[in-house]
Amino acid sequence: MSEPILSVSDLAICFGRGRSENEVVSGVSLSLHAGKTLALVGESGSGKTITGRAMMGLLPAKARITRGQINYTPPGGKTENLVDASTRRLRALRGCEIGMIFQEPMSSLSPFHTIGAQVKEGLLLHGEKDDRTARERCIETFEKVGFPDPNRAYDAYPFELSGGMRQRAMIAMATICRPAVLIADEPTTALDVTTQALILDLIQKRQEETGMAVLLITHDLGVVSNIADNITVLRKGRVMEAGTARDLLTDPRHPYLKRLIDAAPDVDVSAAHNPTPSSDFIVEARNVSKTFTSRGRGLFGVGSEKIHALRDVDLTIPRGETVALVGESGSGKSTLANVVLHATKPDAGASLTYHCEDTGKALNIPELSGTELTRFRREVQVVFQDPYASLSPRMTVQDILAEPLAIHNVCDVAERRDRSAAMLKRVGLDPSHLGRFPHAFSGGQRQRISIARALMLQPKLLICDEPTSALDVSVQAQVLELLDELREEFNLSYLFISHDLAVVSRLADEIAVMCRGAIVEQAPARALFENPSHPYTKALMAAAPDPHPDHKLDLNAIALGAGARPEEWPAPYRYDRANPAPLREVDPRHFVRMTA
Q1: Does residue 380 share a domain with residue 238?
Q2: Is the peptide bond before 404 cis (omega within 30 degrees of 0)?
Q3: pTM of this structure
C-alpha cells in the first residue's frame, strides 16, 4: 500500500493543567490513504471529534496536544508535522488541502450570508481572484452535489433549505477546492434515513472524482458498512480495535465493538408485533387536515401560499398499544402529534376524540377547555426529540421532575421529592443525582430524565417525538428497551414518531407511513415488514443502514420511493393532489394509498 496522506501517531490531547489535567485522547494512531475511507467509530465522549479537529488545528482553547505527531504528506510534496505547524500554515491548509464537514450544518453556516457567498469564500481565500469564475465553479459544484436548481441554491440563505440540502451545501464548501483529505464529522446524524443514504452516496462520488482520503467520524455502524474501507474503534480516548471494515464487522474481537454491533437497529420481521384487533381506542382521529399560510412578500402578504401539512388523515390509537408514525422530515408527523396534543388546531371538519378511561367520557380534543383540558393535559404527555433543548439548564433534576406535580397541585413538597426519587430510580438513574443540573448528564441520561418527567403525572398516553434520533446506537437501544418496559408496567399507550423503520420495529404494534401530509400505507408491524407495498415504504426500508458489509443500501429503491416526487411514483401509487387516491385494504388491516 502507498504511503498515507495523513497519519496520526501516539496522539494525546488534554484539557486543563496540573492537578486538573484530563487526558481525553490517549495514544491514538491511524492512517488515511488516497481514495480510501477510514471510519473513526465510537459513542459520544470517545474522543472522535476532538481527534478530527486536532488534524485541522481547531482544538478548543483549553485543549492541547501533549504528545504525538500528525504527519501530512500532500501528493508529490514533503511530509510535515501539523502539531508543529504555524497558525498561518494551518489556515492555508484548511479548506484547500484538508476539508471538513461539520455535524450540524445550521450552526456551521452563517444565517446572514447566502449559500453561494459562503461556498465561494473558500475559493477566494485560497487564490481565486476572479469573482465570476468563482461563481461558475460554485454553480458547477452545486450541480455535482445534487442541488436540483444550482442557481437558486447559490442565492438562497441557509434557513431556506432543508436539512439535507444544507448538508449538501456543507459538502460543496468542504470539497470545492478539491482537498486531498476530507474529514466528515457525523455528516448524517440529524438526517432522515433516505437523505442519509443519498448523502453517503454523494460523498463516495466526490471521493471517486477527486481521489481524496476520507475520515468518517460516526457512531453508526450501519453508515460505516456502506462507505468505509477501514475502521478504528475508540472508547474513552483509546483505540479498542482497528482493521478492515469487513474483518471488524463480520468478526469483531473486542467486547465494546461487539456491543456496538449488537445495538445497531435492524428490522427483525420475526420479532415484529402482530397485535389482535381492538376497538378500545384511547384516541380516534378522523378526517384531520391542517393548512398553514406562508408569509408573503409585500403589502397585505401578496404572494403567500397555502401549505397542506395534513391531508384527510385517519388514525386510531388502541389503548395499551404503540402506533408509530414514520416518514421523512416535513411529512406531517409532528403536526399530527401537535393536533392530538391540543397544541395545534386542525382545519374545520376534523374529528378528534380522546376516550377517558376513568370517567368513560369521550372528549372532543379541539374544543377542550377548563377542567376537561386540565385532565387531558395530565393524561397525555410528550417526550421531545432533543433532551438538551427540552430540559431547563437553570433547574435541578428535582425541580424538573416535581414541576408537573406542582403545576397540577398534586401532593405536598415532601411527597414530590419522594416521587421524583422513585421515578428517577425507575428510569435507571441514581436518586442521589436529584440536585444536579442537566448539563452534568450525558444525552442518554437526559432523555431518561425527560421520560421520567413525562411519567410523573401517571399519564395514559405518551407521545414520543423522535426520542432516540439524537442518541448513540447503544444508548438508543437502552432507551427503546426502557420505553417498552414502561409501557407494560404503567399500561401506557404510545404514539411514537420516527423517520427510521428499524427503530420502530422494536416497539410498534401498528405503523402508519406518512408522506406529504398523507398516510400512504398503514398496517400491523409484522404485516408491513413482511409485505411492504408502497414505493415510499420500500424506500424507507431500503434506506435503513445495516452493519453487515454485504447488506449495502439499495439506492435505486430509495430513489424510486423517496427521491422521486409523488407525482412520479409508478402507477397505481402515483399521487394526484387534486384527486388523491384512497387508502385501500390490500390484506386484512393492511391499507395502501393507491388507485383501483
Answers
A1: no
A2: no
A3: 0.83
The per-residue DSSP string of 387-442 comes to HHHHS-TTS-HHHHHHHHHHHTT-S-HHHHHHHHHHHHHHTT--GGGTTS-GGGS-
Say if residue 343 is in the same domain as residue 207. no
pLDDT at residue 577, as a whole number: 72
Q: Under a CB-based contact definition with an 8 Å cutoff, are residues 593 and 520 in contact?
A: yes
Dump pLDDT digits (tens) for 371-393: 999 999 999 999 988 777 789 99
Candidates 511, 515, 536; CA nearest to 591 is 511
Count CA atoms closer than 13 A to 320's CA, side-chain side: 10
Query: Is the Cβ–Cβ distance between 182 and 209 less than 8 Å?
Result: no
Phi-psi region of 289 (alpha: psi -120 to 50; beta: other; left: phi over 0): beta
Cα–Cα distance between 127 and 176 in angstroms, integer?
13
Order of strands across the sheet that contains 281-293: 306-318, 281-293, 351-355, 362-364
Residue 438 and residue 112: Cα distance in Å, rounded? 31
Q: Are residues 421 and 311 in the same domain?
A: yes
Q: Are 327 and 333 in contact (CB under 8 A)?
A: yes
CB within 8 Å of 321: residues ≥ 6 apart: 275, 278, 493, 494, 509, 510
Residue 69: C-alpha distances to residues 54, 87, 237 (Å): 10, 16, 16
Does residue 545 sit in the same domain as residue 483? yes
Instruction: Specify which residues 510 forms β-bridges with.
Output: 323, 524
Please state the φ and ψ torsions of residue 355, each to the nearest 5 degrees.
-95, 110
311: domain range? 278-293+307-593
